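I am writing to request your help with a piece of structural work I have in hand. I am sending you one protein, given as its amino acid sequence and as whole-number tokens for its backbone shapes. Kindly check, if you would, that the fold set down in the tokens agrees with what the sequence suggests. You will find the record immediately after this paragraph:
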Amino acid sequence: METKHSTERQRLYKSAFGLALFTIVYNIVEGIVSTYFGYENESLALFGFGIDSFIEVISGLGIAHMVLRIQFNPNSNRDKFEKTALLITGFSFYGLVIGLVTTSIYNIGTGHKPETTFWGVIISIFSIVIMWALIVGKKKVGKQLDSDAILADAECTKVCIYMSIILLTSSGLYELANLAYIDSIGTLGLAYFSFKEGKECFEKARHNKYCSCEK
């Protein structure tokens, strides 16, 4: 017979899994919208932001699987599915970095500028609000479950906010002042965080460690 305590823990794990699923769905939608408007408006920063969102979907699948694993076996280590997801995510981030840096340099060299970065402003603001709400939700559930894994995932979500701030800054400055190359400079900022995320994925795949994004 289940106790009140065990029932509450199951409810909390369901909440954690629900947050993981929401993150996946949101990143899919964000990826589609960002790459569409990034391509249409020739904004490399927004397009790269959208590709990053698609890569985050792979990571999100690993997180959702992790929640189920620790729900039924709290003391277990990272399994093959999670390690595979981390490796795929890591290679994808490194590939994104190469693409963003190369195209940024080309755009700077040719003097290419976006038609508009209006949608970059809108999408980045929306992303900051959603990601912050997810961090609050994940931290609340993680603390109640006393789960280092869920709390670490919440910390890693902060990187998405940092990238959204970069997109907001570069897009906002371009819209306000039409500054040359600012979209490409913002793209290089996104590439920096993508590289850090890729490196983090490989480190977690090699060791049974949690996210160190807060360091």
User: Anything to note?
Assistant: DSSP finds six helices and no strands in the chain.
